[in-house]
Every structure is written in structure tokens, then in C-alpha cells.
Amino acid sequence: GADNDLYINQAIVFIEDAIQYRSINHRVDSKSLWLYRWYYSRTCQWVLSLTITIILALVFIEKPSSLTITSDVRYRLTAWNPPCGLTESIELLCFLVFMVDVSVKSYLIGWEEFWKNKWLVAYILTLIVSLTDWIVSLSFFCTEAVRIRRILRPFFLLQNSSMMKKTLKSINSTLPEMASVLLLLAVHLSLFTMFAMLLFARTKDGQQDKEWVGYFRNLPDSLTSLLVLLTTANNPDVMIPAYSKNRAYSIFFILFTVLGNLFLMNLLTAIIYNQFRGYLLKSVQSSLFRRRLGIRAAFEVLSSTKETPANTQQSYVSVGALLRVLQKVEMDSCCKQAIVRSLRTCSCDQLSAAQFQKLFEELDKDAIKQHPPSPEYQSHFMQKMQIAFGHPYFGYLGNVVALANIVSICVVLVMDADKQPSERDDFFLGAINFVFILYYVLEMLLKILAMGLKRYLSYASNTFDGLLTVILLVLEIATFAVYGFPHPGWRPEFTGLLSLWDMVRLVNMLIVFRFLRIIPNMKFMALVVTTLLDLVKNLRAFAGILVVVFYTFALTGVMLFKGAVVPLGNISNNNNEKVPYKSILQVVVLYFKEKCDLMALFRHLQAEVIYFLLYLLCINLICRWAKIYFVAWWLISSVIWVNLFVALLLENFIHKWDRRCHREHLSDIEYQRTVELMFRDVLEEPTEEELMEKLHQHPHLQLCR
């Protein structure tokens, strides 16, 4: 009986490992299984996630604190800096949680496996360095300039996510191919830098040397100017002096831009897409192997129970034992119900390995959301009403009305654009909003009548539409309660929290936002939007690594350039001359004063800010460090990471585009995809020999065969 319970618990844990794509190489005795399930319980994982969030958020209150309403250094008040020991105490509590975390993980996998796990070894080293730095910080009474442990904090986020670790491994495997293109890009920059220094060399006529003075005075300046041109941040500024002197100089800049931007950068995108997709496919293939291995391990331990006949040459699992396991397994209810249904309809009492594996293929299927049925009315009149208001044409009519509402708002806004608030008459806008909101409320009620409340709310578009309609109705009632009904000259004075104009603007913004209801009715637009939503839901690993990159570079920048920019007072340049800039904001304004094209500023926003910061930091003798720092940031964020995101976006979109051509449209069923299911059609199933070989290598599980 004790053995049977142990086998049942082992099977439960192995199936849960398979569901979550976890490794099964952990201890499988009774106490360890209890500890394992406790560690991966929702409460324990929630505490761990909260601890990681807290230690990452400490940076906002640590010195230099970011707890100010405005970021303008001229107007913001002195930020609150916590006393020494406050944030350090919170840090210590977080470190204690992490020590418990790494201790439990190390115990569960065993010490032999621990030394093979590089992430766990790095986890312990990070904790040791962080605790050492924490002790040093307290010994200096929190006055030390550099805190190494702050830069190490993102590691706690990385090591807690298996998908983020797989993504990092895929990126690391892609680096050699990316390095070849980056090397070609460096050669391109070097050659054109030499050409530029020869082409724009200093001449006897100082009036004709504006290009040399501004951009190509020496090798570092020339290289920086062309690197910034590669980002298009200083385009066309960098070529204007030379172009003013001779139009033929434009050929040099055109060749540089065409070869760099149109060929090399796009070639880098193509290589990253091709290579990274291959490595991500391998990662997903290994996840599939883990799932199949977990299911097979559950089958092997269940075949050892007393409920299974021992005289058969082939292993079998009794249906009763599997039902007992499924009662305790934490998994999606729809999946569990589908497996239980298949078991109960099965005519046999014993399951072979193939049948057992096939049952759990439900885990690989699309998540299906089926909408509740519409109500059945007995009245002939109500049936006619249901047909009329449940018809798609009624939804199309609502879209036309919403479009008419948007057009009317645009007309009123254009007419009142140049009027003073005292000259504005809100009667017309208030009246048309009142009429349209009445229609929206009526439309919502008629749809609920036709579809039923449960079916109505089961559609995300209806929930979105209905929520905005209710908010609009509440705002309209509040407006009438405070200001009365619309009438000519309707512009009363400020009353309550919001003025009449603020209330009307809020209503209009919600109406414009409500117009997004047309997206589900436009197939191509709906495909694009669902692709973006899937990226948001399923590619959290990319967002997590992006947070790590931002966090690390932000803290590194704070440590490197602390005191480099004096926010108030004068700044000294290289010749100890005072630069008459009273604040960073004034420098920004002066720098962008010549660039009146706001669209160009928006287009080059990221690169422009980097270019400006390079200029500002070069004032204070740290230009070389600034260049290295910002070039590294540009390479990692703009060149590598943006291209990785484009690669996954393309893969997700192409996959959805191909599937919509082969799947029949079912109005009552919605399919939801995960990143593993994106590659499901091209994954290879592991063979039985591969699974059994891996199981026999399990460090803590002894199989009977």
C-alpha cells in the first residue's frame, strides 16, 4: 500500500512536470515529492515572484531616488532618500528568500546534478557577491559610490524563468552568425571613415572646412559621425556643409547610407530571423521531449502498482490508477475533462504506453473557448427579435453609427479648434453625444436580449463594447446631474472635480476608443491584432529580457555618469570655460532648436536622444566612456533586440496566416495559441528508445525494466 501511494505521487509529479515542461531529474522519495509540490505551488511561486519584483523596484527609492512628480530638474522638489538600513533591511529579507529558493532547488535535484547546473552555480555566486556587497555597504554607512549588487539584481528575474533561459541560450547560439554581419558592418564603417577623412581633409581656406571642423576632425570623431549617420540621427546635418560646398559630395553619403542601412542592416535582420528561428525551434523541440518524457515516466511508475498484472511481458497501466492520479493533478480543467471523457469511453481496463501517451496529447492541442448557447424563446415575436438583433448586419449597423459619431466629433473639433473656451458652445457636441450614447445603450440591451447575458459576455469584443457603453452612460448621467441638459450657450463654469469641457472631452475620447469594435469585423485587421496580442501573452520571455537589458544599462549609466551633468548652475568644458546652460532642459531645447521638423524628431527619437547625450557628456571629459556605453546600448537594443522581435513577429504572423487558409471558420469556437504550438507542425516526436534511454539515466528513479 505504501509503495502504491508512492507510485501514485510520483506519477502526479511527473505529469505536472510534463504540463509545465519541467525536468524530471529530481528526487522522487515521499518527502522530496511533498517538498517539490510545495515549492511549485501557486503560493510559493507567488511569494518568489513578489520578492523578485520588490528587489527590482528598490532602485526607484534608493539614492538617487526617482520619487518625484516631475522629472524637470528646475521644478522638482528634493527627492526623499531613505535612511541607511531601510532598503538594506528589505534587501536582506529578499536575499533570505533567495537562499531558501536555491537551497530547495539544490536539494531536490541532488548535489551531483547541482554541479552540472550552471544556472544554480551562478545563482549561488550572485548571492555571495550580493551579500558581500551588502555588508560592505553597511560598513560604509550606505555612502559607497558603487553598489555591484544592484547590477546583479536582474539575474534573479532571469534564473526564475525557464523560457527566458531558453531564449538567452538561443540568442547566445545565434551570436556567431550575427557577429559575421556586425564584423562586415565594422569594416564598412572603417572604410568609409578613412574615405571621409581623406575626402574632407583640412584645407588652407578655413571657411571651406566646416565639414572637417564639425564631423571629421580626427579618427574618433569621424567614426562617431558615420556611426550616428548609420542610425540616421544626424541625417542630413552631417552632409549639409559638404553639400553646400559641392553637390558631388552627396554621392559619398548616399553610398554609405544605401550600403549600410538598406543592405547590411536588412541582411542582419534576415540572418537573425533565419538562425534564431532555428535555435528557438530546437528549444521548443527540447520542451516537447520533456513533456513526452514526463508522461512516459508517469506511465512507467504507474505500471509498477499492484493494480497492474505482473505476468505480462508488456507494461500496462490500469484505468483506475490513472483516474486516481488525475483527481490530484493540477492542470487545466478542460484538458482534464477531455482526458477523463476519453478514459470513460474506453472499452479496455488496461492502457498500453502508446494509448497512455495518446491520452495526454490533449495538452498539445489548441486551447479552445466555446461560447455558451443562445437562449431559446417560446414566443414567435421574441424569436424574430432574436434573429434580427443577433444577425451580423445589426453589428455592422452599429459600426456605421460609431463611424458617424466619430465623424461628427471631428467636424465639431475642427470648427472649434481656434476658439477660446469662453467662445465655445458645447450644445451641439453634447446633444449628438447624448443621441449616440442612447443608441449604444439600446444596442447593448438588444444584443443581450438576442444572445443572452452569458453568451454576450463570452465575446471579448462585446465585453469591451459593453463596458465602455456603461462608462459612457454613467458619465453622461453625471454631466446632466451637474450641468443640466444641453441647450444653446451650454458652457457653465467649473463645478466639482471636472469642468463641462473636461467631461465632454472624456466622453469623446471613450467614444473614439470604442470605435475599435470594428476590428473583429475586418479579417485582415483582426489577424494583425491577434498576432500582436499573442506576442504580448506568449512572448513574455522577450519582454523580461528587455527589462533586464534596460535595468542593467540604466544602473550602469547612473554609476558611470554620476555627476557628469550638473543640472543647475554652469558647466565647465574642456578649456575650463563656463557653458551658460542652466539646466539639461535648456541644452535639449538648444540642441533641437534647429530641427523644426517634428516628424523627423519623432522618427529618430531614440537615436537623437543618444546623439544629444553623447554631446552633453563629452563636455565633461568622459566622451570615450559615453561613446562605448551608448554604442553598446545601440547594438544590443536597436540592432540585435529589435531584429529578434521582428523575427518572432514575422514567425507568429506567417504561422497565423498559413493556418487561417486551412482552418474552417467556426463562429462559436476561438483558438488560442502558445509559443510552443507555433512550431507544433514541424516538431518531431521522440522515439520510445530515446525516452527509455533517458529514463534509465535518471539519477533518482530506478525502473524495473
Main sheet?
2 strands, antiparallel
Number of E strands = 6
Q: Which outline best applies?
A: globular
Look at the structure and give the CATH class of the domain at 380-519: Mainly Alpha
CATH topology of the domain at 380-519, which one?
Four Helix Bundle (Hemerythrin (Met), subunit A)
Average of per-residue pLDDT values: 76
In whole angstroms, how far apart are the ends? Answer: 21 Å
Fraction of residues in β-strands: under 5%
Strand order of the largest sheet: 1-2
- The structure class reads mainly alpha
The CATH architecture category of the domain at 380-519 equals: Up-down Bundle
- Supply Rg: 32 Å
- Total count of helical runs of at least 4 residues: 30
CATH superfamily placement of the domain at 380-519 = Voltage-gated potassium channels. Chain C
Percent of residues in helices comes to 55-70%
**Uncertain spans, ≥5 residues at pLDDT below 50?**
568-608, 663-673
